[in-house]
Amino acid sequence: MAVFTAVSLDDLSQWIKQFPLGEVRALEGISSGIDNSNFFLTTERGDYVLTLFENLRVEQLPFYVQLMRHLAERGIPVPAPVPTHAGELVVTLHGKPAIIVSRLSGASQLAPGPEHCAEVGRMLARMHLAARDFPLAQPNLRGLDWISATAPTVMPFLSAPEAVLLRAEVAFQQDFAASATYAALARGPVHADLFRNNVMFEGERLTGCFDFYFAGVDTWLFDVAVTVNDWCVDLASGVLDAARVRALLDAYHAARPFTPAESVAWLPLLRAGALRFWLSRLYDLHCPRAAELLTPHDPTHFERILRARIEHGAPELPT
Ligand SMILES: Nc1ncnc2c1ncn2[C@@H]1O[C@H](COP(=O)(O)OP(=O)(O)O)[C@@H](O)[C@H]1O
Ligand SMILES: N[C@@H](CCOP(=O)(O)O)C(=O)O
């Protein structure tokens, strides 16, 4: 999996002329995506990635694509969209919206140590700061409104202990979101899915991050929580690894210091990050899209993480 829409070199020979990229030299489908059709594209000018969006419509794309451009222009290592001669970033190919972006070098680091987590924390803070003046706004579409609306849909499929936990956690998050502490948190565009498989490394050097299609405006701390819940956990138990947590948080704090309100909100937002992915994985498992061919991610991983945060807490933020 997964190239959902086939594209050949012949298909591109005329189409590519709208971009200042010269002739196409090679095209190779990427098997690892789950939402879109992605291809490594080599032209006379260099190496790129061609993406055909299978589910998002043209009008939904400007927030994501413009955000990548905004960040790339400010030196954050993210794929830079390539405009056509006419200045368009999104065009159509085989009836689907399509973009070409620069190709990042490196590979995912799926067994990170503290040194990798420090790189991720530093980049995340720089990304939050660089997006402060991004002019477009879109809420996090997997935020609390989505959580509140989706929890009842999966409830009939859950065991009694799962249902008790889900109901209680949604109520806890709704209460917390209404608090003065939550209102005081810094907000802006966030990646919201900065998992290990969305970041590239060459050795210990971070070369970039991609997959901005869950990005939206939310609290910066939520983004940190989502990132820590993936990069700093023992995958078997969901337990946080203290050295990796410290490395990621210290590096983030050095670039964008945490505030007193964020210290209070840290544990609730770690729980919010775990809840968001537990619920989306439950939804994908129990309510798959029509003709869904993919093996859903395991929801119990994030249920374990959520229970671990509730029962054992988490290391405090640096101050
Ligand atoms: N700009 C890029 N540079 C290098 N590799 C990329 C880039 N964008 C995507 N990829 C590769 O394509 C794969 C699938 O991309 P991803 O955005 O995760 O797809 P999907 O949105 O379909 O899940 C990634 O795992 C990565 O290997
Ligand atoms: N990170 C999410 C799923 C999103 O998939 P991606 O490949 O687009 O990052 C999860 O693990 O549930």
Automatic annotation (TrEMBL):
Occurrences of domain Aminoglycoside phosphotransferase (ranges): 27-258
Entry EC number(s): 2.7.1.39
UniProt GO molecular function: homoserine kinase activity
Top-level EC class: transferase
UniProt key word Kinase: yes
Catalysed conversion reaction: L-homoserine + ATP = O-phospho-L-homoserine + ADP + H(+)
Key words of the record: Amino-acid biosynthesis, ATP-binding, Kinase, Nucleotide-binding, Threonine biosynthesis, Transferase
Pathway in which the depicted protein is active: Amino-acid biosynthesis; L-threonine biosynthesis; L-threonine from L-aspartate: step 4/5
Family matches, as InterPro entries: Aminoglycoside_PTrfase, Homoserine_kinase_II, Kinase-like_dom_sf, Pseudomonas-type_ThrB
UniProt family annotation: Belongs to the pseudomonas-type ThrB family.
Name under which the protein is recorded: Homoserine kinase
